[in-house]
Fold ARM repeat-containing protein.
Amino acid sequence: MEGHTEFESDEEFSGEEEELEEIDGDLREDLEDALSADFAFAGQYAHSSVLDVVPLPGLSVDGMGVVGLPLSPRDADILRLHAKQAPFGHGDKSVVDTAVRKTWEVAADAVKFKNPEWDKFVADIVVKKVVQALGVSYSPAIAPRCDLHKLLLYETGSHFAPHQDTEKEPGMFATVIIILPSEYTGGQVRVSHGTKKTTFDTALSSATGFTLLTWYTDVKHEVKPITSGFRLALSYKLIHTAHNTLPPSIPDSDVAIQTLTTILRNWNNSRYGDEPSQVAYILDHEYSSKSLKRASLKGADAHLVGVLVRICKKESLDFKFHLACVEHTISGTPDMESSSDWMYSKGGKRRWDRSEFSMEEFHNGDTKITHLVTLDGVPCSTRGVSIDEEDLIPKTVFEEENPDYTEYAGYMGNEPGDASYLYNRSVLLISV
């Protein structure tokens, strides 16, 4: 950068002419490789395991009394009388549609635990196990809070179509499910995040075991139909309680850290030549405008931001970091032969839908910032702030994922009109 001198004298840094010599290479490509490297983050986007040495909860439901475990068909029938069909989020509303979600639920305030050891077990043992699995920084003084959300009863035919959990209150970053002893078959839980997919078959230990399931709130998941028996589960919200999340400690000798440090130092000293003033790195997880801040970052995202901040502080590099919600739109000509389910515009109006089609030819892409904050979550003006498509990294991320929404304008005469793919993503803006 012009006018910037990182070292005050030759005594502090020798070989200045060699250090400031322009280097070969593409900054964006080097950053993409470096930021996608393994920084020793061992967290998972979803986890399942059988819990050991579990106290009996002494589960009780208002109006019914104690619920015996393992759950018997008789108690399941009685419990159903005190439950209601579970809704699901559709836009800003909660909707009941058994084609999408067929499950019975009991509200948290109607659920009691007669064994005082149960809440302590969840707060201490379960929370620690969950944060370790998800790769979240943990200490007893700032441990996340685990609040009961619902008691869920699945019967034969019960299911839940693919969906993402909503942020049920500020600070919620993960869902925790404890499946109570109740024999059933089916009900596999399928989770996916980006290009990763996993299936958990929790029925294997259902007769007598307590099974833990957990995932970040933006992980897509579904519950396949129960084929026999009943599945009884406690659903919890995992909520941040700390104002700031301490980044994990990483050895200075780590090759990935050294590589990233060199790239940032070269960018800071304008050694790449024709380099951008900023890049936008697409984060692993999606965040709402309310949860967009460093303290709410999840897993690898929190780890990566911690690494970057630590490097810049140690090396005295003049980078600025912001978090942003963006809408990325790719426009083109649809392939009519591969598309069988179209939703046309009504009344001449274009509207977003979830129909699927492939593009025959791409025309252009556009990225719009919808929300911009500092790492502390302080809102910033988006006026005059834009992202060029070439400054988005990884470059191929949208080629590997399905769009969140699609738009089709309908036929224009004898030719198909333009179509668009829309992606909602969260990014880390790195600028000099």
